[in-house]
Amino acid sequence: MNNKTTHKTSVGGQALIEGVMMQGPKGIATAVRKTDGDIAVEHHEFKHIRDKYKILGVPIIRGMVNFIESMILGYKMLMYSAEVSGMEDLEDVEMNRFEKWLTDKLGDKFMNIIMGIATVVGFALAFLIFFYLPVLAFNKLNEAFSGSLTPLQGTIEGVLKIIIFVVYIAFVSQMKDIKRTFMYHGAEHKTIACYEAGMELTVENVKKCTRFHPRCGTSFIFVMLILSIVISTILSKIFQPIASVRILWMILKIAFIPLVMGLGYEFIRYAGRHDNFITKILSAPGLWMQRLTTKEPDEKMIEVGIASLEAVITDNPKDDEIR
Fold this sequence. Notes:
By secondary structure, this protein is an alpha+beta fold. It has 14 helices and four strands. Strand 3 and strand 4 (39-44) form a beta hairpin. The longest helix has 37 residues, at 108-144.
C-alpha cells in the first residue's frame, strides 16, 4: 500500500492502558478494552485554558501551554483507562495488609498521596537522568581532555542527552506492560493513517497502514532534543562563564525549556501540514524513534483504535483538516 496521506488532519491521540484516546472535531473520546472483552467508549470534557486567554494561543507560547495541558489530560485518561480496564482491581488483589489498612483508613486520599509521591519522584528522576547526568558526563569528559572540549559543551551535552534517551526508551520498551501500551500506540497511529488516506476504517485496512506519524509525541520530543542542542550551543557561547558552573548552567538551560518547547511545537504543526525535503530531514529522527515507541498491534487493539477515532470524527473529513 502507498501510505502517503490524501489529507492532513488535526486528529491526534494517545495510547492508554488497554485503550486509546483520540481528539477530533467531536472533542475527546476514549475506547478501552474491558475485562469482559467489550470496548467501553466514552466522551470526556476538557476545557483548554488557551480558549479563555487568547494570548496563550499565540505561536511559541501555545507550545508550552499545549504540553502542560497534554500532560494533565494524559494523566487523567491513563487513570480512567486503568479503572475501566480492570487494572485497579488487579492492584487491589496484590496489595499487602499494610496497604489495605492505609486504604481503609484514608480512602481515596491514600491513592492521591501515592500518585503525588510517584509524580514527584518521576520528575526528580527525569531531571537527574536528562539534565544532570549529561552535564556531569560532559564535565568528566572535559576534564579527561584538559578542558579542550569546552567550546563544544552545548553540542556534546545534547548528543549525550539523545543517547541516554534512546537507551532509556529501548530498555523500557522491553517491559511487558509498556510493550502492550506501545502496541496500542501503534494502533492509534495506524488508525489515523488509514483515516487520512481516505480509506474505510476496517481492521484489514488499518493493518495495511503505517504506524509512523510526523505529529507523534515521540517526534516532538526528538525535535526538542535537536533544538536543545542548537540552543545550548548558542547559550554556551554567550554565557561561557556560567556554563562552567554546573548548577547555574542547569538553571539557565531549564529557563530556556519553554522556548525549546514552543519552537518544537511549531515545527510539529508545520510538519503536519507540509511534506517537503526540509520536514522529511528534520522529522526523520523522530520517525525512526517511533520504531521503539510503537509496536505492531493485534486485531483487537486495532478495533479499539477504530472505536476511539469513530467517536470523534464527523462524516465530513474537511471538519478536521489542519488550518
